[in-house]
Specification:
The structure is a homodimer of 316-residue chains. In chain A, helix 2 runs parallel beside helix 4 and helix 8 runs parallel beside helix 10. By secondary structure, chain A is α/β, with parallel strands linked by helices. Chain A contains ten helices and 15 strands.
Chain lengths: 316, 316
C-alpha cells in the first residue's frame, strides 16, 4: 500500500514509518521539521520504499503538490503541535499547526479522492473530568487547553469530511506517549534537569498528577491493527494502558535509574503542572480491547523502560 | 454596558443591535457585509449609542484596532457563514468565516481582557441523530456538514479560552431561525421561486424534512435573558420552540399566503435537502425553560408570521 505519514519525522510518526517500511509498504513521509528531526528517519533514507517530503502541511500549494506526486491509499495524520505548555502561552501555534494542517490535509484528500485516514487525537478533548472513567461516548467534551480545543475541532472536521466524501477515518485518542525519540514531556525534562543539577529537582504542580503513559511501539501496533478494517465513516478509539503513574513516581524511577540518592524535590505546587494541564484522567479501554488490541506494557513499565532507553541513548 | 455585536449587520445580529439599543446599551456593530447589509442597520446610523465598524473579524489587525477603539464589556459573536449549502461546495468558507473569525475574536478578548461572550452555535454540531431528543449533554457529537464541524470547533475554542482566561461564555445552539431580514433558507427560496413561476415549485428532498423554526425576536430574547447571569466558564443552551414544521407544510403556507392554488410541487427526492443537511431533529428544551425563557411563537406560527412579513416587505 502507499501510505503517507504526515508528521512522519516526529516522535510517534518516525516509529510508524519504521513499522510500515518493515511491513513492506511504500512510505511517503511529510514533515516540516519544526519538532520532528532528520535524525529520527535518516536510517530510512536509502530505502527504496521511503520518500521524504520536506513540507509544511498547512501550506496548501505544497501539500497539493505532494498529493499530486504521491497519491496515497492511506493517510496517517500525526502533524500537530505536541507541546501543550508552549501553546498555552501562544494559542496561534494550535490554530496553525494542529487545526489548519488538519483542514488542509482533509481538503487535499477530498480533492484527490483519498479514502482512508488515521488521526492522532488526544485525551485532552475530554477536558478535566477526573472523577469519570472516560469512554468514547462520554458527553460534554470541554477541553481546557488550546491543544485539546484544536484537536476537538479536528475531530469535528474529520466527522464532516468523512461523511461528505465517503472517507473512512480512524480517530485515536492518545494518552501520554513515551519511548525512544521522545522530544519533550516530564521524563525528558526531569532527566535534563537532573543532568544539570543532580541534587535538586523542580517538579511542576504537587507531583500527584496521575496519567497513563503508553509505550510508543504499543501505540504504533494499535494504529496498524486497524489497517485492514472496513467500517464506513468515523470510528473513535481511546488508546491506553493498564494503570497510571504519578509525576513523583516518575521522578523516583529516574533517580533510581540514574543512581541518584537523596535528591530534593522542589514542588511548584497546585494540582496541575500548568494552567490547561489535566491533572488526572482514566480511560475505559473496553472498545479497543474488544477490537483485539491491548498494550503490552503497563504505564509503570513503559515509564521505567523509557527512562532506561533515554539514558542509554537508544533511538530505535 | 458596552456591547460589541460581531456580525451585527446580519439577519440575527441586526435584530440584536435593535434590542440592545432599545435597552439603552452602547452598541459597537462589526460586519464585513459579506452576508449582512447596511439596509439592516441604517435606521441606527444616527443613534449616538451606535457605532459601525466595517471590518472582517478574520482580519487580526483590524479586529485589534476595533478592540483598541471600543473595548466592550460583552461580545456577541454572530459572525459566521450561515449558508450551509454554499459551504458544502467550498469548505474553505467555514474555515475562514466561521472558525477563524472565532479564533481571532477569542484571541482579541484574551488580549484586551474582555470577560463575557455570547456565541451563536447550532443544532448542526450534533450531526444526524433523528431518533434522539437532543439535550446539551447528548454524547457523540458528529457533524455531517462543514458548517456543523466548524461550529463544533468553535465550541472547543470557547471552552479552552474561557478556562484559560476566566471568560464567561454563553453558547446557544440555535435551530433554524426565521423572521424579517431573512437572507436565505427555505422560506426565502420558495417565495423567490413562486414569484418567478407561480405554477410550479421545486422542493429539495422529499419535503418531509422536519425542523423547528424559531422566530428571530424570540431568539434575541433568549440571548438577552442571560445578560446579567454570572456563571463562570461555559454554559450551553439548546434554544428552540414547541413543535416543528415540514418543508411541504412551509410550501403549503406560502401558497396560501400568496393566494396560489394548485401549485405543482416538484420534489428532487431523497431524505435530506442536500448532502450534509440533517433532515430531522428534536431538541430537549428543559434546560433553557428552567432558566426562565420560553419561545412565544411555535414553529408553525413562526413560519406563518415570517411568510406574511416577508411578503409584506416588513423589515423590523
Amino acid at each position: 500500500m502507499k501510505t503517507l505519514i504526515i508528521g512522519g519525522a516526529g516522535f510517534i510518526g518516525s516509529h510508524l514509518c519504521d513499522s510500515l517500511i518493515n511491513q513492506g509498504h511504500k512510505v511517503g513521509c511529510a514533515d516540516n521539521f519544526s519538532i520532528g528531526t532528520k535524525e529520527n528517519i535518516e536510517h530510512l533514507f536509502e530505502n527504496k520504499n521511503f520518500k521524504l517530503y520536506e513540507i509544511d502541511a498547512a501550506d496548501r500549494k505544497k501539500l497539493r503538490d505532494l498529493f499530486q506526486d504521491f497519491i496515497p491509499d492511506y493517510v496517517f495524520h500525526l502533524a500537530a503541535n505536541s507541546d501543550i505548555q508552549a501553546s498555552a502561552v501562544n494559542p496561534d501555534v494550535e490554530y496553525r499547526n494542529t487545526y489548519t494542517t488538519t483542514f488542509e490535509i482533509l481538503s487535499a484528500m477530498r480533492e484527490y479522492g483519498v479514502k482512508k485516514l488515521f488521526f492522532a487525537s488526544t485525551s485532552a478533548v475530554y477536558g478535566d473530568k477526573c472523577n469519570i472513567e472516560l469512554d468514547e461516548n462520554t458527553p460534554g467534551l470541554a477541553p481546557i487547553s488550546y491543544y485539546g480545543a484544536a484537536k476537538l475541532g479536528c475531530e469535528g472536521l474529520i466527522s464532516a469530511f468523512s461523511y461528505m466524501n465517503d472517507i473512512q477515518s480512524l480517530v485515536f485518542r492518545f494518552p501520554n506517549v513515551i519511548g525512544p525519540r521522545l522530544t519533550h514531556g516530564v521524563i525528558y525534562d526531569f532527566i535534563g534537569r537532573l543532568n544539570k543539577d543532580p541534587e535538586h529537582l523542580r517538579i511542576l504542580g504537587n507531583g500527584k498528577q496521575t496519567k497513563p503513559y503508553i509505550y510508543v511501539l504499543d501505540l504504533v501496533k494499535a494504529i496498524l491493527q486497524f489497517m485492514e478494517t472496513g467500517n464506513r465513516g468515523v470510528t473513535l478509539y481511546n488508546v491506553g494502558v493498564e494503570g497510571d503513574t504519578t509525576v513523583t513516581r516518575i521522578a523516583d524511577m529516574i533517580c533510581e535509574e540514574m543512581g541518584l540518592k537523596n535528591v530534593i524535590y522542589e514542588y511548584t505546587g497546585g494540582e496541575g503542572g500548568w494552567k490547561g494541564d489535566v491533572p488526572r484522567f482514566r480511560y475505559c479501554l473496553d472498545k479497543i480491547h474488544q477490537a483485539g488490541w491491548r498494550a503490552e506494557y503497563s504505564s509503570d513499565v513503559a515509564v521505567r523502560k523509557t527512562v532506561q532507553e533515554v539514558l542509554k541513548g537508544k533511538r530505535d
